[in-house]
Amino acid sequence: MFFFFIGGLEQQVRQVLKSSAGRCINCGSSADLVDYDKVLKLFFVPVWKWPGKDPVMHCNTCNLFFPQSFSLPPPNTVSTNAVSDVLRCRFCDRVVEPEFSFCPFCGSAL
């Protein structure tokens, strides 16, 4: 007897807890902090659903679920007013650590 199983386990967003809470580790776009459900599907029909344990990050662009501890900082966390001109490269205008002598992005001397 041959039995072919078509189905699987997937995750679905139940509730968005915080929008744009971080960035995706796969594509870099903004990710939301969400509560999720695990869903067992048989022949593409949801059969059983149960809640996930802890909130996770979810990327709407690539549909990736990943732990909150792996999240990159949220986009646009550095305000241009809060960073002085000393911490910015004068050529490429990117934020540079104060202990650097050269810009790590364009290579120019600071």
UniProtKB/TrEMBL annotation:
Transmembrane segments: none annotated. It holds the Pfam family Zn_ribbon_15. Residues 23-107 form the Zinc-ribbon domain. It comes from the Eukaryota. PANTHER family: DOUBLE ZINC RIBBON PROTEIN MJ0416, OS05G0435400 PROTEIN. This is Zinc-ribbon 15 domain-containing protein.
